[in-house]
Give the backbone structure.
Amino acid sequence: METLNEWAFVGVFFAIAWVFPALPIIGAWLVRPKKPNALKKQTYESGVETVGDTWVQFRVQYYIYGLVFLIFDVEMIFLFPWAVAYERLDWFAYGAGFLFIFLLTDALIYAWRKRALEWV
Amino acid sequence: MTSCVDFINTLSPCLVRAGWNADLANLLSLLLGVVIVATVPLLTVILLIWIERKFAARIQDRIGPNRVGPYGLLQSLADALKMLTKEDITPSGADRILFNLAPIITFATVVLIWAIVPFTPLHIGADLSIGILYFVAVGSIGAVKVMIGGWSSNNKYALLGAFRTIALIVSYEVPMILALLVPVLMAGSMGMQDLTRAQGGMWFIVMSPLAAIIFFVANLAETGRSPFDLLEAESELIAGYNIEYSGFKFGMFMAGEFMHVFTVAVLTAVLFLGGWWGPFVDQVPALGFIWLGLKTAVVYLFMLLIRNTVPRFRIDQVMNINWKFMVPLSIVLILLQSFLLRLIDALGLRPAPELANDLLANLPQTLVLLAGNLVLGAIFMHLLQRHGRTLREADEALAVVKGEAAPAGGMAEA
């Protein structure tokens, strides 16, 4: 019951946390002057008119970083249970954790050798 | 729990005894807790902005805000009032819903982290058994807010800035999470109260200084402050992902950033500086709030010092520092730390459970861990130095080939 209550706290917190930043923005919406015109609403690019569409394809480099991050992030979550239960583990489970980290390192070395970590 | 003195924790039983419905009383005490936990960072951020501006001003040989109120203390309120009256421009091609959502997410996610900050031994928003995972999960929304803000603005510079910032935030999450594994290893729990309690004998910053440094630096990058302030690049990207924002929405981004820095300071204090531990905290738990505040203040001022004195990195340097230095270091650190903990157990150096909070009993294992950390740090610094020298010599050789004089002072990039 007690732990359930903790989660209820997080639930209520999630529901209420949005109110704090939303209130001043709504308040500003009520108070602030509203005189938009076409020139004012132009995209700001240092006074130069925008050329072409904004939402286009960008460099693949960001995608590669995203992939490398994804590999690490997902794999690292599996290490947390290992770390929590660490004191109760026998040597076999301990070695399994080592092996897992070794595979993680392997992925890093592979990405490094493939020059995926170079900012070009 | 018969008395109603500590009313935050015992409000619900007290109300039930006064004849309230149990569910209603529970909900009311939850609401009160939420409001209190959320108000702490909200009130401090007003003061923090003033502290930050004064601090930066002193470093830059200025006076800083000194007109509004005594010592300029009310400057933040004046700024907020001004922002309320500013016209708010939404660019014509923007995605309106996402454009308005981004600043709200920015602020809300930082507030949400405070649910798991243990203020005293008794007072914590929610002592989740997976506190660390909660922090990582909520903190990761930070990348989403940048993407939403940059994408919905319909501005190429904003989009470019968002891409770059996300590449940075996402990369530095890897060593941060790896560094978080070290306290979890030593405490054997992911709950924030358990992690704090485990530091009764010795702070984790002494037992694993490398983990503390990695966590601190990675979080510094996550907040997007100098030397990692690539999301505020006036000369390259006009500003960053928040170019098109004005009025209070821009203010929300700024307030969220200030609060994020403070939140990082609190978490560093909790995870590595012993949290609420301090003299007499056993007798008077409320003192923990003061000890935690003091430790947080030290970390926070240190962050301000770094922000105002260290020059910024280039984007490729930032990525290299992360992927080629901090990630390998943190992986090796975890292997070393887990091995040393096994070794300590095998040698019988771990203090008995009843002596866990005793400084002397903790000393042997602390020394072993500290020595291991220092040796590992020395090895990595030596490798870094050698790499820097190689780069420098290559530079000089190139200069000789070109017939130029070697650059004075060296231009090492590492």
